[in-house]
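Onboarding guide, step 5: your first structure request.
Type a short instruction followed by the sequence, for example:

Predict the 3D structure of this protein.
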Amino acid sequence: MTIRTETPTITVDRLSALLDRFRVRARLFHQGPLCGVSHFDAHPGRGFLHLLRRGPLDIRHAAGSGAPQRLSLTEPSLMFYPRPLWHEFRNPPRDGSDFACATVELEGGERNPLSRALPPLLVLPLARVEGLEGALTLLFAETDRLRCGSRLLADRLFEVVLIQLLRWLIDHPDEAGTPVGLLAGLAHPRLAPALVAMHEAPGASWSLEGLAAVAGMSRTAFSNTFRDRVGQTAAAYLADWRIGLAAAELRSGRDQKSVARELGYGSASALSRAFKQRLGSSPTGWARSGT
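The system replies with structure tokens like these:
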């Protein structure tokens, strides 16, 4: 007798809670040809999303940056730099290449869990990412000619492209080569509900047993699978998630006591201790440093 075990279908929204807490913002800064050599400097809190519409492109990165030192593209492609990283584009002076480019801010900077989960550079042919065609058609229509509100609409459409890219990465982990981290966890049919539960209710009294129950797994299986897929224990991930949220809330001007209560800490002093343990500074000292 053969016993079949079926992989559960993922029925939870794996991105909305994340993006509600840590928003993605894009701003168009270039459309049209780039000829010769173009430099894009690394500035704190700023990434880039480049869309190569046509033409060849040679990309250069500094040694030790984590990205390939040299990369050549010959088909319409998407290049996403989620974190600050210097890069250089080289195009044939005669032919040039046609682009739409935006700066990207992942709210929370290095505390943003999506930013930490992504490699320094993602490069994908535009035709490979399912679902992009409609957004790209609208985006390029807005960047091709000046109309009222074009820049603002282009900014929003760049954000749509980013969300569709993240969705594709989660839905196609093997094809995307998704590394160990949050996206790999969200791609796992049993871990995803537990991660979403933490994202939606960070102040709940989560235990390992409770999270394992949400995942429909035994305590041991959940613990081992979470560590293998996400790269840290569930408790460590939850602590980082809460501290990242606390940092964002405190930066927005909320008082420490209310933030502590909302995120499941017993008191402002408990939040302060956890903050210092994870970030090496008290909330007051961290806010004063501006990091």
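Each response can be followed by summary notes, for example: The chain has two domains: 16-176, 188-289.
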